[in-house]
């Protein structure tokens, strides 16, 4: 999702909790990897569940790291299953979490139940001093373990966890907050977003 679509999505969601909640969580993420507002911190480890790998969030954070000049935002994607012959950046298994300690940030993305094995590893990482952040579907155990969490429960009428990941990654790379706009009806904002997303691309000439 590019910057224009993120901006339109924020406009549609203006008046709901989500733009502010995403920026708050993104602020926690950014502070945890860039302590003191600019000095490099520890590694950012990104892990999902056995059923869900946060590929898109990893890619968006890599982009935001490049665009914002904050390489610390680029995560190491930690995977439950690594197949032989995969490239190095896709070959980091769960054992990597055992090395997490103070100065590391562990970002857990779990739409469903994270599983006892992952919870145990997250708990051990937190005990070792790592900062634990979570984007989840409302799991209480994961919410308790995390220093900061943003939950999207099943059946949320406004958006899903994938969309929240777009909002968070975009906000993490921002250097300033956007200007506030006046109130508009949710249906009007939704109609405007639909018009812009379905409009033909502008001419280059």
Question: Radius of gyration over alpha carbons?
Answer: 18 Å
Number of DSSP E strands: 5
Mean pLDDT: 82
What class do helices, strands and sheet pairing give? Answer: alpha/beta
Mind summarizing the main beta sheet?
Answer: 5 strands, parallel
Low-confidence segments, given as residue ranges, are: 37-42, 176-184, 201-205
DSSP strand content = 5-15%
Query: What sequence of helices (H) and strands (E) makes up the elements?
Result: HHEHEEHEHEHH
- What is the percent of helical residues? 40-55%
Overall geometry = globular
Distance between the termini: 25 Å
Strand line-up of the largest beta sheet: 2-1-3-4-5
Give the count of helical stretches. Answer: 7
What does it look like?
The radius of gyration is 18 Å and the shape is globular. The chain has a 5-stranded parallel beta sheet with strand order 2-1-3-4-5, with helices on both faces. Residues 37-42, 176-184 and 201-205 have low confidence and may be disordered. The protein has 7 helices and 5 strands. The chain is an alpha/beta fold and 205 residues long. Helix 2 (18-33) packs across helix 6.
Question: Any descriptors?
Answer:
205 residues, 7 helices, alpha/beta
SSE topology:
Blueprint: H1 3-13, H2 18-33, E1 44-47, H3 55-68, E2 76-78, E3 105-110, H4 116-127, E4 131-136, H5 140-145, E5 148-151, H6 161-172, H7 186-198
Parallel strand pairs: 1-2, 1-3, 3-4, 4-5
Helix pairs in contact: 1-7, 2-6, 3-6
């Amino acid at each position: 999702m590019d910057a224009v679509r993120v901006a339109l999505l924020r406009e549609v969601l203006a008046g709901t909790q989500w733009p502010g909640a995403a920026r708050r969580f993104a602020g926690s993420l950014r502070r945890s990897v860039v302590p003191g507002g600019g000095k490099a911190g520890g590694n950012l480890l990104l892990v999902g569940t056995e059923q869900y790998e946060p590929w898109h969030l990893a890619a968006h954070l890599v982009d935001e790291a490049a665009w914002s000049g904050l390489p610390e935002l680029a995560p190491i994607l930690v995977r439950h299953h690594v197949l032989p012959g995969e490239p190095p950046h896709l070959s980091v298994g769960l054992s990597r979490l055992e090395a997490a300690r103070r100065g590391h940030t562990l970002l857990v993305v779990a739409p469903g139940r994270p599983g006892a094995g992952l919870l145990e590893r997250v708990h051990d990482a937190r005990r070792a001093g790592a900062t634990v952040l979570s984007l989840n579907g409302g799991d209480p155990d994961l919410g308790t373990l995390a220093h900061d969490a943003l939950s999207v429960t099943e059946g949320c009428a406004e958006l899903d966890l994938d969309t929240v990941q777009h909002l968070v990654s975009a906000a993490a790379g921002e250097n300033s907050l956007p200007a506030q706009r006046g109130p508009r009806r949710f249906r009007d904002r939704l109609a405007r977003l639909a018009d812009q997303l379905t409009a033909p691309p502008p001419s280059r000439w």
